[in-house]
Amino acid sequence: MFAALWIFFSDRLLISFADPATIARISTAKGLTFIAVTAVLLFLALNIVPPEEQWSAQPAEINIRTGPYRLLLAVLIPIIAFDLQWTFWAVISPYAWFLFFPAVFFSSWIGGLAGGMAATALSVSLVWFFFIPPQFSFTLEHPASIFSIGVFTGMGVLFSLIHERLRIAERKAADICFRCLVEQSLVGMYIVQKGFFHYVNSGFAEIFGYDSPAELIDLLPVRDLVAVEDRERVAENIRRHAAGEVTDMRYGFTGLRRDGSPIHIEAHGRAFSFNGKPAVIGIVLDVTERKQAEAKIHALNAELEHRVGQRTAELTAANRELDSFVYAVSHDLRAPLRAMSGFSQALVEDYGERLEGEARVFLDQITLAGRKMGELIDGLLTLSRSIRGELRCDTLDLSATAERLLAELSREEPERRVAWQVEPGLSAQGDARMIERVLYNLLANAWKFTARTAEPRIRVFAEADDGERLFCVADNGAGFDMAHAAKLFQPFQRLHRQDEFSGTGIGLATAQRIINRHGGVIRAEGSPGQGATFSFSLPLKSGGKGEQP
Fold first, then answer.
1. Mean pLDDT throughout 155-176?
2. Which CATH code for domain 391-537?
3. Taking the model in full, what pTM does it have?
4. How far apart are the first and last CA of the chain?
5. pLDDT of residue 549
6. Half-sphere exposure (CA, 13 Å, Cβ side) for 13?
7. How confident is the model over 188-222, as pLDDT tens digits?
């Protein structure tokens, strides 16, 4: 802008003089003044940007490697300026450099040093040949033209150098920012070439116990930081990188700190060219703490497996003892019980007529107690079987099973009139024998506790609860107090007296254990005199009405 204004106003000043000698003196003074001002500006511009050695300890070359598209655009701008000036020369004349100063300025800004110098040379050639008298010739008829060409060339060089220095400054600023990030990083970064470190950051030196990177760069070979057992493998990985056999690689090895203590290292590397020769650049992570934590986890897992093995052995032994107990209950205890029941029955049949009063009552109590003892033994055996053995995965039609079980209960007590309703299409997956036992216990429970209800009703249905499918058995019988609901599923726990409702107190406990073995949950809701609802879930795929198992 300064050059354009200088030429514009100084040339208009020259037009006002008619004496050639005066014009020559003023042109000379104008040129010398412009050269002096340009020199001062050039000096200031080149010293505003610090020298490269102040930015980095490593020398850097002036960037003349502009991209081909930028260089092409830089050369194209003076051509556009020439086309415009040629078109409007009648208006612009005699200001030959009017459009070429901004053209060279933008060319150097876009194309850097190479683009600016090329645009300057092209602009001088075009203006000299087409616009400086005599036109269409490289001869000069006026001394002032030499000064104008020199001034323009100097400004073009100045623009190119300033923009190049600004590019260097920007690049160095980015370099400093990147170096700060690298040096402050806790991750170790390295460049390896021919088995030596050509660069490491502070994080790398700290990981291996050194005070500064200078103690490692170009001094220590890589192998000195690697445990003996891993040196060949690390050297082979570096060789494969350098040979181009692999581009990226990640591996672990045992490293050696300065004091000789081992550390676990995880290395990431990538092949690249450094100073025109193959090298490896990458990062290292100190994973010693992670490896120690993994070792602790492995030790804990091993201990846990050992404990599980012990518990399994103990459980196996307990199951064997339980099997022995069940065998004793089913055989050894039943034998004297059968004898007691048999003799008491024979006594009734043979001498019943002779027994009167309390004697007959005592005999009836013996018979009743024997029957009760038999029921308890059967209940214990059923409870034992519910927690042993493998589960099968069957598909059970709950609706059909419930209808059949209710019909059997009705045949056992034909004098009772109980209304029932079973939702059709209920199905579930699980051990069919065990699930049927659960359903029987719940239905028998409902049948028993509606005995004193005027219009007994039993309903079997399914409902959804928080995304879970529940199968329900509801009745309008005696019900229970929810404050004692936890006792319902404990063996031999009863909420009603024996003379009110008979039973062993094992049925609901057996049902709960079967459902728990299937991974489900059973719960009860009720109110005294208002009936009860027992619901259970089966996590295995189960269906309701209209669903397929």
1. 82
2. 3.30.565.10
3. 0.42
4. 87
5. 36
6. 14
7. 888 898 889 988 888 899 899 998 888 998 888 99
What distance in Å separates the CA atoms of residue 450 and residue 530, rounded to the nearest whole number?
Answer: 10
Cα–Cα dist 104/81, whole Å: 10
207/224 Cα distance (integer angstroms): 14
Under 8 Å between Cβ of 532 and 475: yes
- pLDDT tens, 221-238? 999 999 999 999 999 988
Spatial contact of 189 and 85, defined as CB atoms under 8 Å apart:
no
Q: Residue 310's Cα: distance from chain center in Å?
A: 37
Residue from 286, 272, 287, 278 nearest 195 by CA: 278
Domain 186-286: assigned CATH number: 3.30.450.20
Which of 461, 470, 401 has the alpha carbon at shortest distance from 432? 401
CB 536 within 8 A of CB 471: yes
- Assigned token pair, 322: 């339980």
Contact assessment for residue 443 and residue 458, using Cβ atoms and an 8 Å cutoff? yes
Helices 2-15 and 100-130 pack at an angle, to 10 degrees, of: 50
Task: Give the residue carrying structure tokens 């013996």.
Answer: 366
Query: What separation in angstroms does the CA of 514 have from each of 380, 383, 390, 466, 535?
Result: 14, 9, 12, 23, 13
**Burial annotation 306-323 (CB, 10 A radius, 16+ → b, else e):** eeeeeeeeeeeeeeeeee
Q: Domain locations in the chain?
A: 2-182, 186-286, 295-383, 391-537
Q: 């209209």: which residue's tokens?
A: 546
